[in-house]
Design brief:
Blueprint: E1 4-13, E2 16-26, E3 31-35, H1 42-50, E4 57-62, E5 65-66, H2 72-75, E6 78-80, H3 92-96, H4 98-102, H5 107-120, H6 136-148, E7 156-160, H7 168-183, E8 190-195, H8 198-204, E9 207-212, E10 215-220, H9 222-227, H10 232-238, E11 241-248, H11 267-275, E12 277-282, E13 289-293, H12 295-300, E14 306-312, E15 317-320, E16 330-340, E17 344-353, E18 356-365, H13 368-373, E19 379-383, E20 390-393, H14 397-403
Parallel strand pairs: 3-8, 3-9, 6-7, 7-8
Antiparallel strand pairs: 1-2, 1-4, 4-5, 9-10, 11-12, 11-14, 12-13, 14-20, 15-19, 16-17, 16-19, 17-18
């Protein structure tokens, strides 16, 4: 086990600031995900933790001991490289069992562990194969197995995109297997796992750190990152979103009760209502809309300030026909495009707000009703529960375009 602390880690390459004062605490036996887009600084941070790069400033502590100046070999960690870094002259078993020989581990124990990880990663039967004889996905699995066996003292496992090149089915299975292995009584690992796949992060993480352009955007549980994003970048990175420009109407009384509590038994909405507060918002249509935000941010935003109302595409609901009078946070629109995506349909809905046309994306589970009835050119009502509307301060049109990669 290891308790890991990073204190104001910064790193530059020539004139490029790769990491800017990153501070993190990763607890004993925690499965910790570092999540962010390509080029965010994730791998640079991992290499600094592992001792493969030296930070320009800041400290790295293992169990309160400063290891900033220690080499990678002195830190005794398991590290899986993104490019695999297998020994080309060694077969699969020799690569995987390498650390056992270096640390003079009991050969019987090493073989038992090798057999276990080979079975977990579906590599059984390829023991004598050399790296040049393997596919990219198989090389990745060998590298993963080798990192799992290099855990002699600190019990710290560092994974750089460990499942990136794998087939979808195997990737899904290994996500859960990795988590179970890390949490097992035999290993009790602390894991730092880098990925740019938000679904992978949500599935395995105890906590997630979202990094963007070398800075720390947010740290929290999967629930906090998804339902309480601290900024527009985090909200957008976790799933496809819709956004509406709005005006804060906190001093006005809406015609509908935005403060009503969730129905009995709806513990999920009740939790949102406990953690945050609702705000009435004018988005440029007849009815006032509402979304939720942290109380501290609610107090910062004043009457008539510009705000941004964000709703995830998978949290929008859709009904045939004009049902505006029956629903809250509702808009009338027309399906201009629908696309079958396997387990769900993706709809593009043309609406009008502030006298301007706008495309809203809605994703719904693929059912017979959706397939048969929700056709292109159909008139539909789209709406969302107030608890699932996320409110931010308005950042300005240019900043929003940059964050959302809009033209």
């Amino acid at each position: 086990m290891v308790h890991l602390e990073l204190k104001k880690i910064s790193k530059s390459f020539r004139n490029v600031r790769a990491l800017d004062s990153i501070s993190l605490e990763i607890k004993d036996e925690e499965y910790f995900i570092i999540l962010g887009p390509t080029g965010a600084g994730k791998t640079t941070l991992l290499k600094i933790i592992a001792g493969l790069l030296k930070p320009d400033s800041g400290k790295i502590l293992f169990d309160s001991k400063d290891v900033t100046k220690k080499t990678a070999g002195e830190r005794d960690i398991g590290f899986m490289f993104e490019n695999y870094a297998l020994f080309p002259h060694m077969n699969i078993v020799e690569n995987i069992s390498y650390s056992g020989r270096v640390h003079a581990r009991d050969s019987t124990l090493t073989q038992t562990l090798v057999d276990q990880v080979l079975m977990m990663t579906l590599l059984t039967g390829r023991n004598d194969a050399l790296p040049e004889e393997l596919s990219g996905g198989m090389k990745q699995r060998v590298a993963l197995c080798r990192s799992l066996l290099n855990l002699e003292q600190t019990r710290l496992l560092i994974l750089d995109e460990p499942l990136k090149a794998l087939d979808a089915g195997l990737r899904m299975n290994l996500r859960k297997e990795l988590q179970l292995m890390a949490k097992s009584k035999e290993l009790e690992l602390t894991v730092v796992h880098v990925t740019n796949d938000e679904q992978e992060a949500m599935m395995v993480a105890d906590r997630i750190a979202v990094i963007n352009q070398g800075t720390l955007a947010q740290v929290g549980t999967p629930y906090e990152i998804y339902y309480q994003p601290k900024n527009l970048f985090v909200a957008n990175f976790m799933s496809e979103i819709n956004y509406f420009d709005g005006i804060c109407m906190k001093n006005e009384k809406p015609l509908w009760d935005i403060y009503s509590k969730s129905k009995q038994g709806d513990k999920f909405f009740a939790q949102i209502q406990e953690d945050m507060v609702p705000m009435p918002i004018n988005i440029g249509v007849k009815e006032i809309f509402a979304g939720y935000l942290r109380e501290s941010l609610y107090n910062e935003i004043q009457q008539n300030d510009k705000v941004l109302l964000v709703v995830r595409a998978n949290q929008m609901k859709i009904r045939l026909g004009n049902r505006i009078n029956e629903k809250k946070n509702a808009l009338l629109g027309k399906i201009v495009r629908r696309k079958f995506m396997g387990v769900f349909y993706r709809f593009e809905i043309l609406i009008k707000v502030n006298k301007k046309e706008k495309i809203i994306v809605v994703t719904r589970p693929a059912t017979y009703e959706i397939y048969n009835s929700f056709l292109e050119n159909s008139e539909v009502t789209i709406y969302f529960p107030k608890e699932l509307g996320i409110v931010f301060k308005h950042l300005g049109d240019e900043v929003i375009k940059e964050v959302l990669k809009l033209e």
